[in-house]
Write a structure and sequence with these properties.
Helix content is 39%, strand content 26%. It is an alpha+beta fold.
Length: 214
């Protein structure tokens, strides 16, 4: 894996001791050379994409879109609810795992009807699942990191500040269409399993809770 910064800044969640690529400094060609070297080191092969490869990729995309459309009409709400339960289970598992490693700072986990919440000191990581009436829109997962106050489902007691937020939609994985997860609404619309999404936002929560340069 090669992590690349698009704005020339060190990602706050990325360890200082790990190597990362600076797009502004090395450019596309320089970073592409690094990625190619990593592929060769692991036994991979570099080759130019042919016209046949492009046709095969387009056929795969069309097949996926057809399966996704059928899924949206039939199984989307039920699968999304089951996936949210997996996300809640992962929140509980990770909080227990983190708490078993230390005794002074605890990550507290709470479940509500539509929400799962992880607390770190006065910070709150909130996952909220909102089914939509139209299956074609999928189920929406809202995520916030807030500071202060005491969040409750549909309300907050006390003064609070939103530090970061995200929005995701229930979807299928284009590479493994039998896997249900969450796709980012913004940017490149990356797909995440519940496990990878919880880990991503836990990293962000810890970046706010333990800044490298306070």
């Amino acid at each position: 894996m090669v992590v690349v910064s698009l704005d020339g800044k060190h990602p706050v969640w990325y360890p200082d001791t790990w190597i990362w690529g600076d797009l502004e400094r090395f450019g596309i060609d320089g970073l592409a050379s690094v990625i190619e070297a990593r592929i060769r080191e692991t036994g991979g092969e570099i080759y130019r994409v042919s016209l046949s490869d492009r046709l095969a990729a387009e056929e795969s995309r069309l097949t996926f879109e057809s399966k996704r459309g059928t899924w949206r009409h039939q199984d989307s709400p039920q699968d999304a609810q089951r996936e949210f339960e997996r996300l809640r289970d992962e929140c509980r598992r990770r909080s227990e795992e983190l708490n078993s490693a230390n005794s002074l700072i605890k990550v507290k986990q709470f479940n509500f009807r539509k929400e799962s919440r992880l607390d770190l000191r006065d910070l709150h990581l909130i996952f909220r699942c909102e089914p939509t009436f139209a299956n074609l829109d999928g189920t929406v997962l809202f995520i916030w990191i807030t500071k202060g106050g005491i969040p409750r489902e549909d309300s907050v007691h006390g003064e609070t500040k939103t530090l970061e937020n995200g929005k995701y939609q229930s979807d299928l994985d284009i590479d493994y269409p039998d896997i249900v997860g969450w796709r980012d609404f913004a940017g490149k619309k990356r797909f995440f399993t519940s496990e990878s999404l919880v880990e991503l936002w836990l990293e962000r929560l810890f970046a706010h809770g333990f800044p490298k340069n306070p």
